[in-house]
Amino acid sequence: MKFHVNRDVFSEAVSFVVKLLPQRNPQPILAGVLITADDNGLSLAAFDYEASARTTIEATVDEAGTILVHGRLLSDIASRLPNAPVQVVVDDDGIVLSCGSARFTLASMPVQEYPAIPEVDGDAGLVPAEDFATAIAQVAFAASRDDVTPVLTGVQLEVSGTRLSLVATDRYRVALREIPWDGADVDSATALVPARTLQEVGKTFSHGGNISIAFTGSGDREIIAFTSGNKTVTSLLIKGNFPPVRRLFPEETQHHAVVNTAELTEAVRRVALVLDRSAPLRFTFTGEGVSMDASGTEQARASESVDATLTGEDVTLGLNPQYLLEALSAVRSEFTRITFTSSDNANKLSPVLVTPQTSVDRSGEDSFRYLLQPNLLLR
Question: What's phi and psi for 259, nearest 5 deg?
Answer without folding.
Answer: -130, 155
